[in-house]
Amino acid sequence: MRAPTTICTHLDLADYKRFIRNHIIQMQEKTIMDTKEKIVGIFSIMIQVFRLPHAGACGGRTIPSLKKHIMRREIRYIDPEKNNQNLCFFLAYSFITMPDIKAEVAADSSAIAAKCFKEHSRITESKRLFQRIYGKKIDDNYNGFNFATEADQFIQNENLNINVCAYEETTATSTTTNSGSYYLWKQYRRNEQNEQTKDFNVLLITDTINEIQTAQVFYINDVEALTGLKYCPICGVQLDKSEPFPQEAFRNSIRNKNISTIKYHNYLAVAQQISNRWDYLRHYNIVDTRFMMEPVDYLIDIFFNYKIDMLQFMSMSACANAIKHAVVYWDFKLDQDYTPKDDYASFILNQNYWNIKVQNYLEQDKKRNRDTSNNIKESD
Description:
Layout: H1 10-27, H2 64-71, E1 75-76, H3 88-97, H4 111-134, H5 147-158, E2 160-171, E3 178-188, E4 198-209, E5 212-220, H6 223-227, H7 261-271, H8 277-290, H9 293-305, H10 316-328, H11 334-337, H12 351-367
Helix pairs in contact: 3-4
């Protein structure tokens, strides 16, 4: 179990305590008496304290699977050797502000030249972003982006949600080779989301070189392909977990209130019968829409009686308007209720009228440079 946040302040510590308590409650078996008594848990934890390095120092850590994901373009980055100013965070951000377009081949048919031009443009874009955000040009004294102190303000100013993934090594028991996996390590999310808010997905790789902790940031183009896990695009919660959603995940941002404890316990009872969160969302969507099927069928039957197809109208008001006209003309019979009028003045074609029509047709064709040899004539 990983903590849901990096503990930097007392507020983070309070959130962590709530997370631990909720996790213990979820793991314990529920009985009727449990809801009437105070739940007490005795457990031990190990806390790892570390200093989060600045993102920018070029690390030397080698991850076997990293090259594979780069070749698949699931991870994007610029070669650190071409960037010695700790710009990797802003290079990753440039993939948000300047999305990739289809690679153009250079005039000399050299794809390498075109690639170098694109990399140079992206480095220029990252320096422009740095100057816009900090109000000064970057220099060699810049240590890199500090997630611990700058991320919260950055997401508010840039209207972003930052999802930081990390790499975890695991040593196989049967062999001496190491393997690992990518996972969602930390999320920085805006308090107020809007339609323009974008997700900025990065991979943070840390390493220690000459007793100095360094870090490198890569832009993640496809989080699901990298981690093999599904995440909710709205709240960022992992969907492949078998554990139920925490109570905080049901917070209503419009009403600014959380789900009640009774409703959450009802959810836990249903979640125990479903394998993972992803399957629960499917179940929820089916249940959420199923109760609307009967009213929709009822409306279809009503409109069918008036020979009205609901799909031909854009709204219920348009359907109601069609019913109004259907009711008005319900018993109308054209051959009985409508008296045709035949007292209109008759039209008599005379030579003068015909000559004017012929001249008008001729002038129109001449303006369009059409062939007039077969045009009608006055004598016709």
